[in-house]
Every structure is written in structure tokens, then in C-alpha cells.
Design brief:
The structure is a homodimer. Chain A is mainly alpha-helical. Chain A contains five helices and three strands; from the N terminus they run αααβαββα. The first copy, chain A, has a single domain, classed as Arc Repressor Mutant, subunit A (Orthogonal Bundle), CATH 1.10.10. Chains A, B: This is Transcriptional regulator.
Chain lengths: 125, 125
């Protein structure tokens, strides 16, 4: 996801850039965001994402969060899907791969949803 | 989606209630949110949602937003999916069904994502 795409989603990028809100969502931005929402469209993945973000240091490996009721290979599979969608980043350290939320991406998706709701509200007569 | 579920997602409910943030996402809340993200996991639906929210009065019927490159029956199908997921409400007036964002729902999903990102960031040493 590029900075311009993130800005199109109504999100602040870095400390210097104000949010830019676009009334109409472009086809390209819609494709990118739909792929991310698809990765979020699974209850186990949502719980894993929440667990990773809540873990000390804001990162976790499979060994830290394997208690969500599915097997460790399944946890690894879901974390990989979240990484491939650009929602998590990963770093291998020794035996384990550590995951953390990709900076700015969840906030940008959240800002798009909040902005969409706000636009609807602000137009109510 | 109940008020308690929305609050569990880290969202403000109404004017009186502060956001309540939970570190661990429950299985039930994850199921509810995953179904909503599934409805958002389609680029045409995202563009239609954006169009509905951007339309004058914050509502639109199929007749208003049928120019996203798919047939009118397909637009109707996608709007119905968004309504079934709880993201849009609908009201029939005469010939047409008018859609608008369901109050608080997109903002709640957005707050969950923003909060998840924030938790990850705040734990970085």
C-alpha cells in the first residue's frame, strides 16, 4: 500500500501529513483495501491480530499466541496470510518468526471506515 | 451487533459512553466482526459503501449509484449483502429502497482497527 493510497483512505501518514479525505474511492484503492479486509474476514485471524498487538513489545511469535484453539501450523498459516495482506510485518530471530502490526496500515483502514461513517452522518439533514 | 460488542471493539457508543478497550478479543466478538469484514472484502462493495455515505443526505438508492461499472441487479445484490452484514440500513420509499450507513457500526470497526494498531505501538520499547 503506497502513501498516496493510504492518504486516499483518509489516514494520516507519518507525523507531517494531514489526513486527506476523498469523497469517491478509486478502483485501485478499493482493490487494495478489499484484499486487506479479506484477510480480516476470519475470526481466528482477528483474534491473532489482537493478540499480537496486545503482546509485550507489540510483537509475538507463534510460540507466544498458540492458545486460540487451533493448531500451531494453523496459527502460522493465519499469521502468514495477515503478513501477505500487509497487515503484519515479520522478522526471523533464531528459531522463531516474530510478527508485529505493520506501521500505519490498521490505523489507515480504521480511518477509512470512520471517515465513511462521518460523511454519512454529516449529510443527514 | 450489541452495544457491549461494540464497546468491546473499542468504540464509543452514543454520546455518554467512553470507549472501552479490551486487550483480548472474545470469540463471539471476533465472529461478529469477521462477518462484517467479509462484507467489506469486495472492491465493488467498498466503492458502493463510499458512494452511499458520500451521497446527499447520507443515503442513496440503486438508481443514484449504479455507475460503478456493474449492472443494477449486481449493485442491488451488493447493497443487500452490506445490509445483511449490518453495515447499511435500508428503507423502502415508493419504488426504491434507500440505503444509509448503519449508525455507529463503521466507526466501531474503525475504532477496533485503530485501537489494535495503537496497542501495538504503545508496547514498542
Amino acid at each position: 500500500m503506497t502513501d498516496s493510497t493510504l492518504r486516499a483512505a483518509g489516514a494520516p501518514i507519518g507525523a507531517c501529513c494531514p489526513p486527506i479525505v476523498t469523497a469517491a474511492l478509486s478502483e485501485q484503492d478499493a482493490e487494495i483495501m478489499a484484499a486487506m479486509f479479506k484477510a480480516l474476514a476470519d475470526p481466528v485471524r482477528l483474534r491473532l491480530l489482537s493478540r499480537v498487538a496486545s503482546h509485550p513489545n507489540g510483537e509475538a511469535c507463534v510460540c507466544d499466541i498458540a492458545d486460540v484453539g487451533v493448531s500451531q501450523p494453523t496459527v502460522s498459516h493465519h499469521l502468514k496470510k495477515l503478513r501477505e495482506a500487509g497487515l503484519l510485518t515479520s522478522e526471523r530471530r533464531g528459531t522463531w518468526v516474530y510478527y508485529r502490526p505493520a506501521p500505519g496500515v490498521l490505523a489507515s483502514l480504521g480511518a477509512f471506515l470512520a471517515d465513511t461513517e462521518k460523511r454519512g452522518e454529516s449529510e443527514v439533514p
